[in-house]
Amino acid sequence: MSYNHLTLTERARIEVLRQENYSLRSIARKLKRSVSTISREISRNNLNQSYQAETAQKNYETKRKLCGRPTRFTPELGNIIKYYLKCHWSPEQIVGRLLQNQICFKTIYRWINSNMINFELISCLRQKGKRQKPKETRGKFNIGRPISQRPKEIKKRNTFGHWEADTIVSSRGKSKGCIATFAERKSRYYY
User: Fold this and answer.
1) Longest CA span, the chain
2) Cβ of 108: how many Cβ atoms within 10 Å?
3) Pairwise CA distance, residues 32 & 19, whole Å
4) How crowded is residue 14: how many other Cβ atoms within 10 Å of its Cβ?
5) Distance CA 154, CA 48 (A)
6) How would you class 81 by CB atoms within 10 Å of its CB: exposed for 0-12, middle for 13-18, buried for 19 or more?
7) Which residues does the UniProt record annotate as the domain Transposase IS30-like HTH (predicted)?
8) Are strands 163-169 and 178-184 parallel, antiparallel or unpaired?
9) N or C: which end of the chain has fewer CB within 10 A?
10) DSSP structure class, residue 159
11) 8 φψ region: left (φ > 0), alpha (ψ -120 to 50), beta (else)
């Protein structure tokens, strides 16, 4: 169920109509509000048996500021965040590595924008740009040495157990078949 809060003009009309001794029902009818809304508003803000719209509005605004969840910001937490921001960490990295399950990275941005964190060097924040992609490692053998760096004893083919591997890719057909060959250096045996 949604509802609208009373505005200052509605509160002023309530004040005028109360001074003219209108009943709660007639005030509610004129403002097109519920009788219980008008009754609660008057009982909440009835000072010295008189309703004043300006004080009622001020009370409403102070209570409105206090409502909601309290902030988790502390000066110590602000100093920690400020230190890592100056070290060129992004708010996402700070939350991911240091403050897991404590705050969200959007909260850090909100604190910076509302000046809760005195962060004068906005240039330290990362800017949107090209994302780094991980390097492609498929099709590359990172193990072993190149043939040019082979030890001398392998070149002489005196000992058994030194293998060479190679792949051949077919250029015909849709499947682009591949053959792997393995050769032993001393016996020259191929698999």
Assistant:
1) 117
2) 26
3) 19
4) 25
5) 106
6) buried
7) 2-45
8) antiparallel
9) N
10) S
11) alpha
pTM here is: 0.45
Instruction: Determine what percent of the chain is predicted with pLDDT higher than 70.
Output: 87
What length does the chain have?
191
- Compute the distance between CA of residue 3 and CA of residue 81 in angstroms, rounded to an integer: 39
Q: Is the pLDDT of residue 112 over 50?
A: yes
* Mean pLDDT of all residues in 152-167: 82
Angle, CA of 112, 113 and 119, to the nearest 5°: 35
* Structural tokens at position 72: 């988790």
> Please, what is the angle between helix 53-66 and helix 8-19, to 10°?
140
Average pLDDT, the chain: 84
What gap in Å lies between CA 70 and CA 124, rounded to an integer? 28
